[in-house]
Amino acid sequence: MRIVIVGAGMVGTQVARYLIQEKHDVSLIEANGERARHASNRLDCLVIQDEGNSLSALEEAGIAKADALVCVTDSDEVNMIICGLAASRYPELVKIARVRNDDYVRLNRAGERILGIDFFVHPDVEASQSVLSAIEHGAMGDVLAFADTPYEMGSIDIAEGSTLDGFRLIDFRSLVKGESLVTLVERKGESILPTGATVLAAGDRVHILTKEKEMDAIFTLAGGSEKPLRKIGIVGGGRVGVLIAEGLLGQEPEKQGLAFFSLLKSLIPQNRRRIIIIEEDYGLCKELAARFPQALILNEDISDESFVAEERIDDLDLIITATNDQELNMIAAIYLKSRGVSRAIAMVTGSGYAAIARQLGVDVVIPMKSVVVDSILSHLMGGGVRGVHRIGDGSIDIIEIEIGPNAAIADTPITNFSLPAGGLVMLVNREEGSFIPQGDYVFKRGDRIVLITKDSGEIEIERLFGTSP
Q: Which superfamily, per CATH, for 127-132+228-367?
């Protein structure tokens, strides 16, 4: 594929880096001279220092022969104008725009096509959905759910002295009776695709694919203990905090004032669930109090130790730190866990801080930039690819792909198949149901497959599974 990316910030460079690794032809346009030089020095692609809304710059970047245009500048309007400009000349081009204005996304989801844009990516909505999904699964660790299946992949930390400490994976099925599969082991900063000979150890973060009802039992074997999440605190009353509160309380979003036209699927409120929102800005607290009368709104500084003790914040079942300050989010989450809060979710900017936060004991870390990158990549991938999600240190990809009518792998037994770099077929979803494939499975056209593989294997995967003749 040929892709033109406008904007060389963190998201633009991450998308470009991934696509370059996968052998795609990438051109990058950036108006800021320092950013353009930085990208040119670090990325093996054409980098043009110019305004993205310049037709000559787009032409120089190869827009005439491109398959897709990705606009991720800091301005919603600029992103949309660039897409509209490209659409006027190249209507068949796939156009993706990052926006933060909820009106644009709401109209797009309602089926209205704005300026020819195919996909809008909203950072706050994407991040809030990730938080709500984690809460729905007990906030025990990072959870990746697979649509239309009862399966999920959850991450679990192995505690010292637990049943899984020192356990060989070849014996895993004898210990866990339900259908399950250990897909990845993170150990001392390294991501390992395990084999039967792999031995788990205390401190490992293990990613396990299983049905939701089995996850609690596996979590117990790893040394954890489940606790209902009834008292939940949200630090930060900004856009993300409000979207999370709306989802937890099952409220319809407002259309005035503080409202953000939430596009989240609200969680069904649990009985006796109590929500506390902690915000330092007094004016914003007044708006939050009017918006969420059933929640407790506290106008306080979360870093104030006396406040934590006086308001008994340390007896929360879950704290979600969602301010615009990622360092504060990490420190507050770690501090409150040390004071007795059972679980913590922290919002950070990128995967680097996410790895640090996990090492320091934060249960679930949401790297906002990485969530946006995954969403963009899912829209970009061809060959039947339905979704891309990166886990571990960022070198491991979860890819959902549909077996095309001309796929080379069709009618081949799984025993005759091996993915590059030790990858694994984790899950199969077909009309009659979903299952973890065993030795007697035969790939069929129309099956939706979930694979785990090291990066740089996407082209080979598309060749085997996609629609290319």
A: NAD(P)-binding Rossmann-like Domain (3.40.50.720)
Residue range 141-221, CATH number: 3.30.70.1450
CATH number of 381-465: 3.30.70.1450
Question: Given phi > 0 = left and psi -120 to 50 = alpha, else beta, which region is 394?
Answer: left
CATH architecture for the domain at 2-121: 3-Layer(aba) Sandwich (3.40)
CA 434/CA 78 separation, integer angstroms: 43
| 460: enclosing H helix or E strand | helix 458-465
- Tens place of pLDDT for every residue, the chain, 469 residues? 899 999 998 889 988 988 888 788 999 999 999 999 999 999 999 999 999 888 899 999 999 999 999 999 989 899 999 999 999 899 889 999 998 877 776 665 555 667 788 888 888 888 888 888 888 767 766 777 776 788 888 888 888 888 889 989 988 888 887 788 888 898 887 888 888 899 999 988 888 888 877 777 787 787 766 667 889 999 999 989 999 998 888 765 444 333 333 333 444 445 467 899 999 999 999 999 999 999 999 999 888 877 877 777 778 899 999 999 999 999 999 999 988 888 899 999 877 788 788 888 888 888 888 888 888 877 776 556 667 777 766 677 888 888 878 787 888 888 887 776 667 888 998 887 889 888 888 988 888 888 888 765 566 666 677 654 4
Overall pTM surpassing 0.85 (yes/no): no
DSSP string, 336-375: HHHTT-SEEEEEESSHHHHHHHHHTT-SEEEEHHHHHHHH
